[in-house]
Amino acid sequence: MLNTLLTLLIFQTMGEGLVYLLALPVPGPVIGMLLLLAYLIWKKNVAAQLAPTTSQLLAHMALLFVPAGVGISVHMHRIADEWLPIAVALVVSTVVSIVVTAFVVNKLKSRGRK
């Protein structure tokens, strides 16, 4: 379990470091996830080693949303002041996600028919 958590933290730290060094406008954990994905594709046997611990993390993922919920309740006054841009961002990002997902599924289906 410790090796898995260390692996995840190493990739997150690498992502944070790259964002800091290159002044990227992307969160460090996202870059770390992409690096982890590339590593898992490159070293196929590592995914099986990470699976038991990551399954446990996913099973308790609801706990990971507690800090976000606390942050929302602490900043409720700010959210009330800026509700319109937040609502627009949520609606637009949801529509874009649905459209992109439909496009990808459609492409994958058409590729499977060939």
Please provide a brief summary of the model:
The protein is 84% helix and 0% strand.
Q: Layout of SSEs?
A:
Layout: H1 2-22, H2 28-42, H3 46-59, H4 66-74, H5 76-81, H6 83-113
Describe what you observe in this structure:
By secondary structure, this protein is mainly alpha-helical. Helix content is 84%, strand content 0%. The chain has 6 helices and no strands. The chain has helices spanning 2-22, 28-42, 46-59, 66-74, 76-81, 83-113. Helix 1 packs across helix 2. The longest helix has 31 residues, at 83-113. The protein is extended and about 50 Å long.
Strand content: under 5%
Q: How much helix, percentage-wise, in residues? A: over 70%
**Main sheet overview:** none
Let me know the average pLDDT. Answer: 91
How would you sum up the global shape? Answer: extended
- In sequence order, what are the helices and strands, one letter per element? HHHHHH
Runs with pLDDT <50, length 5+?
none
Distance between the termini: 43 Å
Which structural class fits the helix and strand makeup? mainly alpha
How many alpha or pi helices? 6
Please supply descriptive tags for the structure shown above.
about 110 residues; mainly alpha; 6 helices
